[in-house]
Queue: 4 jobs
Job 1
Amino acid sequence: MSIKRIIPLVSLCFISIGLKGQGFEFRPAIGWGTYAMADFKDFQQYAIPDIGVNVKSVKEFPGYANFGADVLYYLNPSFGFGGTTGYYSTGARNSYADYSGSYRMDIKARAVNFGGIVSYKQEVGSNLFLGLELSSGIKLANIDIAEKLVIPSQGFDETYQFESHNWWMMPQVRISRYFFTDISFGIYAGYEYNAKSKIETRENVLHYLVGEHGPVKQDWSGTRVGVYVTIPMNNL
């Protein structure tokens, strides 16, 4: 199942769970993340072809926007637990173009997180809350590598599809404030650690992406910052 189909399904499940419970909160979020991708950056340089022109790396897995949602059940005003999901994307590009032709290689990486989360929050001011959280789970990623060469009398246009999965963990800090009766807005910051994993072809898990130093592994580790809103589900 593709990532684009998984995200709406999981979000719907979270909302459905929240509607049935007491003390549930739904937290949609939007943020920004950075991504290590050391192996992939090495592969990007290794993959520059020797075609007699100076192909450049013009994009190397930059930070990018991400989206997420949590559902938490609070046993008391301070302690809660629940489920979390998130969607991440980044990419890279090697390219060259002049009057005689062009070359381009695009690497598009997309990933979705599934996991659990535990939360502790404490009021530190009037309607102001400080929270400490730890979440962990699995990450499923899709990677597409598209390569195109256009020169007189020859060229090619190929796309290769890969996938990967690994384990992740993220501690984070949250600060929120109630601006309405039950709805709060906040900011968060954390660091997501990813265990590295091989990038396998979608057709055969025994075939995987190989670079100059062996198998290329994905690593989405990096900082995560963003904003969110907390909506109490039991009041809807």
Job 2
Amino acid sequence: MRHEAPPWAALMPVGLLMLLVGCATLEVETTTLTEKVDAAFNAHEYQRAQTLLAQLPQEDRTARMISREAWLARMTRHLEQAILMQAAAQLRREQWLDALASYDRGLAMLPDSAALRAARDTARAQHEGRLTDLQVRLLMARGRSLAALRPIYAELIRVDPADVAAARELERIREESREVADDLQTLGRLALAAEELRLAVDALSLSQALRPADDTLEMLHAAQQARADILATQRQADHARRQAAWEARSRELFDRYHEAMQSGDLTAASRHLKGLERTRPRDDSLPRLQRELDQAIDTRITLGLEEGRRQYLDGDIERAVETWRELLDLRPNHVELQAHVQRAERVLESLRGLEGETPPVTVPVPQPILDVGEPAAEAQ
């Protein structure tokens, strides 16, 4: 015999739900603040525990609560940094999921930490980028593999039309090629929109090779043109940077040349002028600067020759050699200077030989330098 349920039976789940909600409310209301602190502490929700401890009335601040508050104050100062360091080490080993789990555990304990939240978001973006990169590389590798296999199997079947297995494999390759070509076209379109033009050209070129299509070809031409435009702009920018660097270097050499001329450092001036000849070989001002430098060097050599002769005749032969050698740095091929240096060095060699003899000797007085190319006659 079938028994009908009483009319109020249908209301029982609702009543039970209301009863449960009421019980939960009563439980929350009857839970003390101290118990909430304990619950948060045991759940490692340290930031929430600190917030609750700050709300404790004075009469509830027992020794245990004060001890916990002090421990939390010490711990939370170092917890954030410890979590960041742990996750960073995991990221260096590319343990992406472990690092993200470390950030999540840290945020469960310190939900208001901006540093942890920012680091987690960055790690998530890097993880997603790494996955995307691998997926793109995999798709491109599949496309290149199919493009290489298809003509080989076609030739195999042409050579051996009875090869049924090869025919089936070629059909499978053709079907997969159509699918991969669609995926490559989508990748190329997205890359073109993101101005990743190199990837766009590679993906669309491979898609067109696997399955020629007008829309793919149109996007490929657009990507190639955009890439060519960017490369041209980059070349112009590189040329402008080189031109600016060249101009700056030229100005620096001009300034250094004039500074060296003003200070009388003709060796440095000559070096800077040679630098200008390399950087600005067609500059109209260089011949004038060279004439200016040559005139200054000629004047310096004329004066230096006379100064060296006076030093030589005064018996200060070593000083004379030094004076003439400094002038040779300016005119290495100056015949008169070379002759004076050679003559003075022979005299110095003779003097050193005399200094090595035991009996005292009379040092011969250097004879005046008469001719450029011939040594002075020895005293009789």
Job 3
Amino acid sequence: MPRIILSLIFLLFTVLFISACAGDYGRHYVDDEMIGTVWEVKKGEKIVVDISEWETRNSKGNKKDIAYPYAANIKEETVINHEDGTKASIEDIKKGQKVLVNPPRGNDFEGYPEEIVLLEMTYEEKYARLLSHIDGLNLVVMYEDEEKLPSELQEPIYENITNILKNKDQRAVAAWMEYDEDYVVDFKEELGIERFPVMLVFNKEELVFKTYYVDDLYNFFNTFR
């Protein structure tokens, strides 16, 4: 399967998985507080917000994996603030940012908010794309230019890791992710990444291994217990 298709599949799975598994529906979401995560920012124009959890706050039982985007058009009167009340602008809004949009959407799905609040985020929320969501490890191959990604860092890397772990009673998943400087977290700076591509291994809580060399990655999994 082409690498770009795998990347898109992982991105879609991540969005749906996080939306479905981030917490109990209805526990953190109320009717008059429409909270979501920014998918896209069009500077000076609008932001697109994933409001899936807010939209399904009253749902019971099993729910379909459906994403609910909300296009919040920025008008001159729209007030943008940080959660502590300090003034912000659309230039401060990054992809992945958790926001409160007022008023909540009505039946007509207006999309012209009076207020947007940039909410404080937990470590788990900021790193949700990287942390493992299984009882095992998550390998993330992060790159800048997909066309220059070496063949050894493409799909076979996951098959090789699976073969290494099959007799260890351990599990791992893998994902390919393009570095996004417009994301709410600058992973390059926070993780001390010196160059791309880089291989990052996360458990459910933190980064446990980082390398630029495939042999070192395989050695890590060979000795992992």
Job 4
Amino acid sequence: MNTYKKIAILCLMVLSGLQGCKKDSATADDSAKLKVYSLEGIGNAAVKDAKCGIDLANGRLYSVVAGQQHQNEIDIAYGYMTTGDPSYYARCFLNLSYAGCFCGGSSYFSYGDQPNRQGYSSYSVLNATRIEAGSEQINFDQLAARGTKAALDEVFAAQPNSNGSVNEVTFADGADNLVVSHILFTTVKGKRGVIRIKPYVKNRQQNYHLQANEISIDVVVEP
């Protein structure tokens, strides 16, 4: 075999190897496993020391006061807002820029609404995580089992998107029934995912919106 043929074969082998590496890398990116976790004991922010602030990317919970040191990581929080006609308090998730803090009573979304207020400083941290009520056709278990970005792409593509992304998602009705069980989100840092709210114990006492009313959730989120 002459020298030119040897060089040509060697070049083809190198190119083939590079293409193989590129293909393997692309496959790895496409099939990167989503993170799946559960959180329990998420409490209404109106209650002192309740763990209401959620870091969706890392699956961590913070109370209002503890969360002051982690505002850039907290994406949404759980509490109560007035809604409906006639108005009533209902369980909600809000993004941090809207949840208010030191908000003068616009919500029960931070302990700052109560006397001796304390809360996240939404004036300096604007974690406007995009959230929206998800379709009830979402199969959370199937998404978690597949665990790929492609599977998450399909969920987002199938979303009716009738309301689009909002600051607040109310997931209970006036009788405290769970009416929205899935919430889609995209964090400020670009992590997309789905929240599944687990069934909870209803509370219809007169001051229910000032009680802990803990909930638990499952989350699928991009790594």
